[in-house]
Amino acid sequence: MRTFIYNSKLKFVLGFVLIQISLTGQNDSAGIHHVSTDSTKLLLNLDAVYNRPFLQYGKIPVAIGGYVEANTNYAVTDGVTEGFSFQMRRMTLFLSSSIHRKIKFLTEIEFEDGTKEINIEFASVDFQFHPMFNFRGGIIMNPIGGFNQNHDGPKWEFIDRPISATQLLPSTFSNVGFGFFGKMYKPDFVFAYELYLTNGFNENIISNSENKTFLPTTKLDPDRFEESFNGEPLTNAKVSLRHRKIGELGLSYMGGCYNKFQEDGLVLDVRRNANIYAVDFNTSIPKAKTSIVAEWAWVFVDVPDTYTQQFGKKQYGGFIDIVQPIIRKKMFGFEKASLNLAFRTEYVDWNVGTFNETGGNISDEVVAIVPGISFRTSPQTVIRFNYRYQWQKDILGNPAARTAAIQFGVSSYF
What's the CATH number for 25-413? Predict the structure, then answer.
């Protein structure tokens, strides 16, 4: 994967993904029907935006859906605890409309921690010209890695989102922009691609309260859905391949200028770029019904030499999830219930490198393991219990702060 080269001020995007969506339904006595999404069973992470349960009443052209997440949390770090808390993590609403048989609109609005944060995570119009060439415009979910596209709580056996997807990469990162997408089916595999230009990063990446290079703080810019911070677009590209027997492999890139290097024709600084590369993979073992999801990302940031070494120029991290069903049958009146064992291991290093003065390793890293058990009353609703154990080192590599947490919660589509 390589950074794209642009000619002067004209930047163009070519390429990309999403599927032809066919809204079909089955009426019940009340006139309400569920809307299905894709005729093929070989779904990709990029299909997640439409691969959700929607409800539609009669012939009204708008379908509605959403999901909710709530949990309890008790954590202790080196013997110190803030006690026991109930948390309303998020409630998310989906609205979808078929404007024309080849024009679709969908929006996703999320309420986090009650109403502490209200975000439009997705709001785009899709024009379907050809399976391999379609157009999307609006607020786009940037396809970097797999989790950013496929993040709905009810799909996961873990209460916390992966550290690499929330504290290395910006969590559920979206921006205003335009792009192209396409998808090609063959008997044993499906190939898809996406390419977008959107508003991009800002100087919060290195100018923040975390006092380190921290990409998630780019979301704190209140104007990022209104205008570009520096007039430079962010390029985002992804290719995905899913084989019927092997699984899905995704390769993605996101990058662009993050600093305001000029204003009103006055040069303020050199252009400084932030580039992210990610690989994601998911598969299942048919006989054992074991599910495996993995993701790894590399971050490269052009940090000014005037900044101290606590601001990392290179970062990386990722996670691996393994979910094993142990009982799948009718339980407690639920027809398609399952009891699952789950295990996650994750790692993030926010500062890869060595100190100039001593040659010693720069730490600022975290390692965590999360065993868990979940009970699914249906594929759309999960009750989950997690135990989290985490080791986190500071920049100097002092003995790790140890955190243990017990979490219990529910998540469901509605």
Answer: 2.40.160.10
Q: What is the pLDDT of residues 114-123, one digit of tens each?
A: 888 999 999 9
- For 166-172, what is the mean pLDDT? 94
What span, in angstroms and rounded, lies between the C-alpha atoms of 406 and 28?
Answer: 41
Tell me the pTM. Answer: 0.87
Residues 285-312: what's their mean pLDDT?
A: 96
Write out pLDDT tens, residues 14-51: 332 333 333 333 333 333 334 434 334 689 999 999 99
Beta-carbon contacts of 201 under 8 Å, excluding residues fewer than 6 positions away, are 215, 218, 229, 234, 256, 257, 258, 274
Domain boundaries, the chain: 25-413
